[in-house]
Predict the structure.
Amino acid sequence: FMGLTGTQAAKLNVYSKSIGMETRDLQLEVVGVVHQFNEATGASVNLNDVLKDISDLSASLRANFKGNVEEMAKAVTLARSMGISLAESNTAAAGTLSISSSIKNNN
């Protein structure tokens, strides 16, 4: 299933069903986003990496996109173009906010 492990493919299937979408349609939407991004930027973001990252996203991160696969695929593709996953980006952002809050509390 496009380079995914059985577990990742199952997660992608469950997610697609939860938003009322066929898994194949979700894949095609992601393919389109990655292709457009690569064409527009000259990048070479790997489609399999994007699909793996989407399948591995936490439920809370997925919920932020409210079923909007295109926007989720754009965010995951952008993160991948920087060499990180969206989950890693989210963790880094949370850490930055934590440091910022600590600094404000000490002043």
Remarks:
- The longest helix spans residues 86-106.
- The CA atoms of residues 79 and 107 lie 33 Å apart.
